[in-house]
Specification:
This protein is mainly α and about 80 residues long. Helices cover about 35% and strands about 0% of the residues. The chain has one helix at about 50-75. It is elongated. The mean pLDDT is about 80.
């Protein structure tokens, strides 16, 4: 089992203020700061997929069959 690395001594850390903060401008960022998306969003499909239409038709047929069966058993 590996042990955790030792915590750095705050007394040996340069530009450390009381409370753990650093002075403004004393620590540059590690990486450039970017916000938002880096690549454009892919275009979305403007039409309904064929599998979606087939699923709706299948569900509608099942509902119709159950309604016909319910009406037939009541009559």
């Amino acid at each position: 089992m590996t042990s955790a690395p030792p915590e750095p001594d705050p007394g040996n850390t340069p530009d450390l203020e009381p409370g753990g903060g650093v002075k403004p401008g004393s620590a540059p960022p590690n990486a450039p700061q970017k916000s938002g998306f880096f690549e454009p969003e892919p275009s979305t499909v403007k039409r309904f997929p064929v599998t979606g239409i087939a699923a709706i038709v299948a569900v509608a047929l099942v509902v119709i069959v159950f309604v016909i069966a319910a009406v037939a058993t009541l009559a």
